[in-house]
Structure formats: C-alpha cells, structure tokens
Amino acid sequence: MNEQTLQSLKPKLRPVKDEDLEQIGDEDIAGVLGDDSWVHEGDLVIEGDLSVTEGALLVLGDLTVSGEVTTDETGTLAVMGQLKAHHLYLEGNLEVHGDATLSGVVYGFYEAGISRVYGKTTAKLGLIGNHDWSCDSEHYEVSGRFSNFHKLMEGDPEAIRKLVGDKEFAQLARMLGVSKEEAEGSSNSAWGLSLFHRV
Description:
Strand content: 35-45%
Organism: Myxococcus llanfairpwllgwyngyllgogerychwyrndrobwllllantysiliogogogochensis
Radius of gyration: 16 Å
Mean pLDDT: 92
Order of helices and strands: EHEHHEEEEEEEEEEEEEEEHH
Structural class: alpha/beta
Protein name: Polymer-forming cytoskeletal protein
Number of domains: 1
Helix content: 10-25%
Shape: elongated
Oligomer: single chain
Distance between the termini: 17 Å
C-alpha cells in the first residue's frame, strides 16, 4: 500500500503560522509545533497509509485515509475536523477536534505521546496502554486498557484473542500484562500494527 509522509506531502502543504497554533486545544501539543510543522488547508484524502514522523501535520479540515495512520514519538498530527482511517497507531501526539472513526484498531501504548479526541472515537478494537489518551466518548466492539507489561485493567482477553487471532494474541499478551512469557518471534512485535492484520 502507498505510504504518504510529511516529505511526500510537502508540495500540498504550507509552513505553520501563529494563527494556526491558536486552533490547537492542548497546550502541550501546541508547544511542540514549530519550524518542522506543516499545514494542509481544507480536507485531505489519502489513498494508502499516512505516517507522521519528524515533524507535525495540521489539517484544517477532515482527514480521510484508506489505510493506517501512524505517529511515531517524533510526530504530531492535528486534525481540525473528522479523522477516518482503517487503523490508528499512537506513539506521538494526536489532536482531533471532530470524531475519530476507525474500521479497525486504535492502539496506543507508548508513553511519550499525548492524544486528545474531542469528538467520539469508534473502532472495532481499542487497546490503550500507558499512552496519554483522552476521549470523552469511546465506542469499541472489543477494548482493553492496560498498564504496559503489568496488567490488563479493563477488557476481556479472550475477546481480544478471538478478534486478533491466537498467534497474534500470543505476541500481544506480554504487553497487555496477561502473560509473563516471551512469545516466539520478535520481542518488539507488539510495537506497530503488524499484529492487527485480521482486524
């Protein structure tokens, strides 16, 4: 699938202005916007994936992505309208002023980022660990709240296993705090979205 980045989108973007920063609701997120911050005027539609790293993208409208949206610890994404995508992976910062509608998973565990959704978040699977996440209205078919590598505080591990699959759940189990055993494969396999291909 085609992946778009800040670099590939730059011909459609302009540098951030002071008046753009006034639209950001969270002062910590506004505080990270600077010289490497870019603005898309109006709605942005991407066929494929969007990866926001090493900078910030502010969308002054709706953001629709046919694939996944990811922010790494160096990335910030702010959407002044609605966000629609298949998956949402959170390591960095996210602010959505409208609803966040995912047909797959919203997954955030990395402690460095801040995520704020001021509308409703809807997804098939919602897994939130130690990531700083705030949303007043969340609607998931299956969900889990966990303390990274310690315990699953909310959610049904069997429902998560059924949705993601046995092999994939075995890779997630340590991160969710429901197993002390290291699963076969990469020790970092719970990072990213590779375990959610069935969702």
